[in-house]
């Protein structure tokens, strides 16, 4: 394995890759040892060749393209259905502005996280630490670079963030399935899709999500463009109104949802660790955000243009679009995507739980069995709190704003605060960063912290609390069919 010299290129060169894969290194997705067993012994047979081809094609996903698929699948999903409602709460201009604004901040803070990962891994490998059977995680990076308090803070905020997003995926599957077949209540659909989603515990790491993340990108792309075309062909409803922004509560409820949609880099570290060349992830995520914006802004504008204020009373865009085979296909596709997203956001929790139990480096079957309680807990929470959607906006404002936006900025400043640390940093500054300079980076980070704390944590929490108060009378533990028609 190539060392992380200078942080310029982390991972294997093309010539090193086959040997690296046989070694089952951490760069290759931590648990490839059992996946490679027996390949060498049967290498001369056609069956082995087919098996090897299928593994390389479907199973081993450590390229920049795989990272892009994972990032897009994690970044865009259920928000496709709720983003038009955010535009109806904010209006065209403010909707597009905050969509772009929070995406830019998301790209920047993801860049900081990527640099922190490179710095952490470089330092540790220079010390002789072997990551061949260990997946590096967010809280470990901050604990080593910043201190124990940062590790605990990152662990606290990120566990709640990724856990909440995972729970929402199961609830969203049930909600979408109810649109497709209302003969079964949402609780029944939650039971069904909770059980199906548990199958993701069989995937060893994010390195093995290639085919699933491809499906995730394909399904969300179809759904976004279906909504755009369906809205344009439907035209504006009679007497359509576009009243947004109406008041501060609805306005900041909309901005909070967009902030939540821009926080997909909560699993940045795990995606990077699954790459063969993780130093390239900062470019991968930039490409990811360009793609996400290209499919979410057009459909959000089009659906709001066609249905206007009607979206204020409908959080799921499927609810305003007319029934058709294309709509039914979109619903099925979104269910598929949400199952993929559940797996991506559950994976960090799996790794944390494995480490807590001391089985993270144990054989595959022990890790799978150890993960089962994590999946069961998320399934239980989805059944117990079907009204989790309104709560999710508060979780986004209070927790995701810290885990994916504020904490990376603080950690970066502390990590490279001294001249010595900047002189010895693993990844030497490129031309844009040299132009900005250290003081410029500190200024940018401070502005991000201030903006996110005021708009996201402050006004976002305010709007979320008011929204919850408005709906609290409809909340019910283990409710059979939350917000269903009588």
Automatic annotation (TrEMBL):
Main location: membrane
Pfam families: Aa_trans
InterPro entries xrefs: AA_transpt_TM
Localization terms from the record: Membrane
Stretches assigned to the Amino acid transporter transmembrane domain: 60-429
Transmembrane regions: 96-118, 155-180, 186-204, 211-231, 251-271, 283-307, 327-347, 368-388, 394-417, 438-459
Keywords: Amino-acid transport, Membrane, Transmembrane, Transmembrane helix, Transport
PANTHER family recorded: OS05G0424000 PROTEIN-RELATED
Name of the featured protein: Amino acid transporter transmembrane domain-containing protein
Organism: Sphagnum troendelagicum
């Amino acid at each position: 394995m190539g060392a992380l010299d200078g942080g310029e290129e982390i991972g294997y060169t093309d010539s090193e890759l086959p040997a690296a894969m046989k070694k089952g290194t951490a760069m290759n997705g931590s648990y490839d040892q059992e996946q490679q067993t027996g390949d060498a012994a049967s290498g001369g047979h056609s069956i082995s060749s087919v098996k090897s081809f299928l593994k390389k094609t479907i199973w081993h996903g450590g390229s920049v393209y795989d990272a892009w698929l994972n990032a897009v699948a994690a970044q865009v999903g259920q928000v496709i259905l709720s983003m038009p409602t955010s535009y109806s709460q904010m209006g065209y201009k403010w909707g597009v502005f905050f969509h772009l604004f929070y995406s830019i901040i998301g790209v920047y803070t993801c860049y900081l996280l990527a640099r922190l990962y490179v710095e952490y891994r470089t330092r540790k490998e220079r010390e002789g630490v072997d990551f061949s059977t260990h997946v590096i995680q967010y809280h470990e990076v901050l604990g080593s670079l910043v201190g124990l308090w940062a590790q605990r803070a990152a662990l606290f905020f990120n566990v709640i963030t990724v856990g909440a997003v995972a729970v929402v995926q199961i609830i969203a599957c049930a909600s979408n399935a109810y649109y497709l077949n209302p003969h079964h209540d949402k609780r029944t659909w939650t039971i069904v899709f909770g059980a199906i989603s548990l199958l993701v515990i069989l995937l060893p790491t994010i390195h093995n999500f290639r085919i699933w993340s491809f499906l995730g990108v394909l399904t969300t792309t179809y759904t976004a463009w279906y909504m755009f075309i369906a809205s344009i062909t439907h035209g504006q409803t009679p007497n359509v109104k576009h009243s947004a922004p109406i008041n501060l509560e609805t306005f900041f409820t909309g901005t909070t949802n967009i902030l939540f949609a821009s926080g997909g880099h909560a699993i940045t570290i795990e995606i990077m660790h699954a790459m063969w060349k993780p130093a390239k992830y900062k470019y991968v995520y930039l490409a990811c955000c360009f793609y996400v914006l290209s499919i979410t802004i057009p459909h959000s504008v089009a659906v709001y243009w066609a249905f206007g204020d009607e979206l204020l009373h409908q959080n799921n865009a499927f609810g305003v679009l007319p029934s058709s085979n294309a709509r039914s296909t979109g619903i099925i596709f979104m269910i598929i995507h949400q199952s993929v997203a559940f797996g991506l956001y559950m994976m960090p929790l799996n790794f944390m739980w494995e480490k807590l139990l001391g089985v993270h480096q144990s054989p595959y079957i022990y890790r799978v069995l150890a993960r089962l309680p994590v999946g069961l807990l998320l399934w239980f929470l989805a059944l117990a709190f079907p009204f989790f959607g309104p709560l999710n906006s508060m979780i986004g404002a209070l927790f995701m704003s810290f885990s994916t936006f504020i904490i990376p900025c603080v950690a970066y400043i502390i990590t490279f605060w001294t001249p010595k640390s900047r002189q010895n940093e693993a990844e030497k500054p490129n031309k844009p960063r040299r132009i900005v300079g250290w003081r410029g980076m500190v200024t940018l980070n401070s502005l991000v912290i201030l903006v996110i704390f005021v708009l996201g944590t402050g006004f976002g929490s305010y709007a979320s609390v008011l929204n919850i108060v408005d709906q609290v009378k409809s909340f019910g533990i283990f409710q059979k069919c939350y917000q269903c028609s009588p």
